[in-house]
Amino acid sequence: MKILLLFIVIVVNVVTGDLPLALSCEAEKCELPECRCSSTSIPGGLAAKETPQFFTITFDDAINVMNLVTYRDILYNRHNTNGCRAGATFYINHEYTNYNAVNELYNEGFEIALHTISHRTPQTYWAEATYDTMVQELVDQRVLMAHFANIPYDEMKGVRMPFLQMTGNSSFQVMADFGIIYDATWPTVTSLSPGLWPYTLHYASTQECVIPPCPTASIPGPWVMPMISWLDQNGIPCPMVDSCFFVPKLDNEDEWYDFILINFERHYLGNRAPFGFYIHEWYLRFNPAVKRALARFMDLINSLNDVFMVNSIEVIEWVKNPMPIDEYRRKPCKVTKKTNCTRLTCGPLRSDHNNLDYWMESCTSCPRTYPWVGNPLGQ
Length: 379
Ligand SMILES: *[C@@H]1O[C@H](CO)[C@@H](O)[C@H](O)[C@H]1NC(C)=O
Ligand SMILES: *[C@@H]1O[C@H](CO)[C@@H](O)[C@H](O)[C@H]1NC(C)=O
Ligand SMILES: [Zn+2]
Description:
Elements: H1 2-16, E1 53-60, H2 65-75, E2 89-92, H3 99-107, E3 111-114, H4 124-127, H5 131-148, E4 158-159, H6 170-178, E5 182-183, E6 187-188, E7 199-201, E8 219-224, E9 227-228, E10 230-231, E11 237-238, H7 253-268, E12 275-279, H8 281-286, H9 288-301, E13 307-309, H10 312-320, H11 325-330, E14 344-350, E15 357-362
Parallel strand pairs: 1-2, 1-12, 1-13, 2-3, 4-5, 5-8, 6-9
Antiparallel strand pairs: 7-8, 10-11, 14-15
Helix pairs in contact: 5-6, 7-9
The chain binds 2-acetamido-2-deoxy-beta-D-glucopyranose (2 copies) and zinc ion.
The site of one 2-acetamido-2-deoxy-beta-D-glucopyranose has 8 residues, from loops.
């Protein structure tokens, strides 16, 4: 029945070429675990003090041996007070990524997520991206990483678009069709306090569109994990920490610690919407005081009974099935099915799109050419 319905919907769409427009959300028709209206209300109707405060740290772009050093330094061997390993999420793009390193991060229990194969400029490429482009950039990237980093295809569940550039309906349609679970691209600069919780696109989103085009079709399936902006020291919103402008002096650890804490408290003392620390690794590498402040902040988080540093996908899992802190604490920890990596160095690999030679570390086999859009296995 479900398959027949899906078939009819697809046929209708092919005939008209249009997706159904999303209608305004009615909470009675949109229920967990499948559906949630865009809203600042706490899932499951929980009170703030019973609600786990999730902390998600995410890093964007290629994984290489240099940034792996930082990740080992600040992320490995952390635990939450429930005894579970602390999480972090990596939105990875392909060019210059070292797949041995990706395999290591995966085996350490961190989340490996999609940030497209090409990450190319100009930004209008993404704003105008069609469904087929997004299949080649996202779904093929999943094939690429599953192969060269030897991690399960289904474990890549999240997407962040390059430059936080939304693609209208396209990326969400692709996610719906290929079972990619959530998007973490969409900033909010207005729903900070109370913060906007993750929601689905069955119905129209009420979130403001900062980097248009945003999806306006009804697209059941994928979740939106809003990037709730920080406020810099002049009160100007910034979705990525490294995009905040009025920040403490970059060599002042104590002031940075306070700056992080003030932003955290907007969530923790508010409606406990997930608190994000979204950054590129270079910012920490070039600013050791910021890195130390962050490590101190994570030490604090890892000692609080109602705060949990998790992979982003774990937030979505909780929102689908919300439960109070004491119940959440009793849940078994997530387990990562470890995979092997035979460390191979491949190269020089000629790249068909720009005629450059690349070297690439792989876990499984070496490709013939450098993998790229349209040829994710480099065959
Ligand atoms: C998304 O789909 C809706 C409904 O079909 C349509 O009105 C809108 O123009 C589409 N958005 C873009 C950017 O194409
Ligand atoms: C991984 O490698 C080890 C040691 O070579 C081997 O015993 C094990 O069977 C391998 N596991 C898988 C899933 O291939
Ligand atoms: Zn990026």
